Amino acid sequence: MIGNLFLGKRVGLESIIDFLFFCLAVIVLCNINGIITAFAGIEAPISPLMLLLSIVLLAFIPIRQSYLKGHFMYFLIFFASFLFFGLIGGAFNTVANFGLSDIIFEVRMVVTALIISGVFYFYTLYKAEKGKIHKAIGLVCFLYIITTMGTVLEAQLGLQQVNRFVGERNMGFFGNPNQTGFQANITCVLILYLFLSHKLNAWLALPLFGLGMYAAFLSFSKMAILNSGLILFLFFLYINFFLLKFERRTQIKSLVLMLTVVGTVVFIIIPAAQTTYNNMSSAQQKRIEQLALLVTRQEFNTETTSHRSDLFADAIERIEASPLVGYGLHTFSEGGLFASSITHGAHNNYFKIIGESGFIPLLLYLLFVGRIFIQMTKKKYIPHNFMVGAVFVIISTSSITTHSMFTYKFVIALMGVLMAIPRVYRLQQTKQSHQTIIQPN
Q1: Threshold 0.85, pTM exceeds
Q2: Residues 6 or more apart from 13 whose CB is under 8 A from it?
Q3: What sign has the CA pseudo-torsion 379, 383, 386, 392?
């Protein structure tokens, strides 16, 4: 298809849409903007191209009225309420430094999130109507895996020269190691989905899954390491609960993969852990020790949480003083509002929402996520449902330690794809019911 475009051959609208979407997906999911910024020092150099591709795709993709329902509508309502109540909170705020720059920042964030998620959402539904949803999901999974490889191959790709944590934490294609670890976590879920849906065999899925786990570890993000264990738990839980509902081939493959993972952990990873620990730098050892204290002794303090416990305490105190409408847009995302730090934001997406806009937007966001979890339980043994549910679990846990979740374009884009999957089920059910009704006796 791409070759035909460059050779000047006649191509249809679908091929043009596919090509434009491929370009946008590479830019967004591989964080090309961030890579160029890191090396050239130019802020967001290809954002105009990203916006242009998005607008053209929204113009070309046939958007049906039925697409504008379901989870995407709840997502839209949440963001609208966030802006509305955030503006009200800022108007009555007498504590935080709230101004026009804060409004511009958050409006730009919301508009970008809705455009990016909307393009990926509508494109996925468009491909589903043509019976090709696997191609949309497959492309996203492939680009996630490629990006994760960039984390592991950071030195070989020359990315360490722009890594401010060089020798301590890998950042890959991103400017923040916590973001890098989070991306690797999602890649692990997508690899398990590809395995469950027969797109990867066990012998290919296992090393790729190990690659994702290793990338998360190289980031030395405490939440990413915790999420790695959570992903294994979710997968084993899924296998154990729904193994009997799988077809025979999937049952055997799942058992083989599960036993191989367990065997690898017991006979390879655990024995090698002590040697690996001894070879770490003092800073890396300290982060592992802090994580161990947090998990084994539940020591939730400044050291084990990298200062977040103090920020959380300050955020809760501020929220209790103004829970209805908050302090205004962007006030929990920058320094100046918390006693424990004049430079840090809340580092918690839930605190950001309620702290800037009050409890109503937070309730709407939780309703949005809750509806997805509920719908995903209706056909529990379908691999798509494992992917959607597990990714939103990881997004939900990671939101505890960052207030920047909605600025992560690779997450927002994937959310667009995931929101489309339940909508595909609903549209298919409606179509089948309609065919049954009009079928002659």
Answers
A1: yes
A2: 60
A3: negative
